[in-house]
Amino acid sequence: xxxxxxxxxxxxxxxxxxxxxxxxxxxxxxxxxxxxxxxxxxxxxxxxxxxxxxxxxxxxxxxxxxxxxxxxxxxxxxxxxxxxxxxxxxxxxxxxxxxxxxxxxxxxxxxxxxxxxxxxxxxxxxxxxxxxxxxxxxxxxxxxxxxxxxxxxxxxxxxxxxxxxxxxxxxxxxxxxxxxxxxxxxxxxxxxxxxxxxxxxxxxxxxxxxxxxxxxxxxxxxxxxxxxxxxxxxxxxxxxxxxxxxxxxxxxxxxxxxxxxxxxxxxxxxxxxxxxx
Length: 277
Description:
Layout: H1 2-7, H2 12-20, H3 24-37, H4 43-52, H5 56-69, H6 75-80, H7 87-99, H8 106-115, H9 118-131, H10 137-145, H11 151-164, H12 170-176, H13 182-194, H14 201-209, H15 218-224, H16 232-239, H17 248-260, H18 263-275
Helix pairs in contact: 2-3, 3-5, 4-5, 5-7, 7-9, 8-9, 9-11, 10-11, 11-13, 12-13, 13-15, 15-17, 16-17, 17-18
């Protein structure tokens, strides 16, 4: 079906036929291909599949495709799919509503954020950030601070709080820099950077310096480079970090300093490079 999707609009009639009269795998593949082609004319047929196909995987593929197509006439059907018996359909419906930035569904997504299955909760946390309605901040903060919640849901909550950019999220995100999970800490750091909270730079760098193995915070250090001159003093402290991790800290910090581009930042990065040729 991926090859069929590459054909583009010319493949749409055959894909419509496969939606109506094919095996489960063929129907799901046709729905996915229509989503890749993103032809708005396919939305009504996909909506019918979402609401009536007996197979959950096919309905999920239709929901995902509707999100990619972006036809707002599909919103009512996607909202109804939040109550589908299939977890995968609910997850894809949530993701599609996030893509479509459906603010009317925030209330339902907040309910699912605290009562759905793990995958649906994670999808809700991400979708609420995509939608951009700041009424979701308190619910996302609650998910971030829930010590019993899975790390992937808390990580998604942190990312969305960064997208929403509300000052009410700053203290909870700072607290999350000490989370037990590495990925949550990194997501909180990047969220604070996204909010442009320069007052958090020392806390973020302290978190980076506590690195003791595992996934290295390349993205966090790189993101500091988007804060401009405010981040230069902190990045300079990483240039000459101890060598337990080789040049990982320094390489990342030098790239961030080059991205900042001020005279001081570039000079420091070049000096470090000369010393380590």
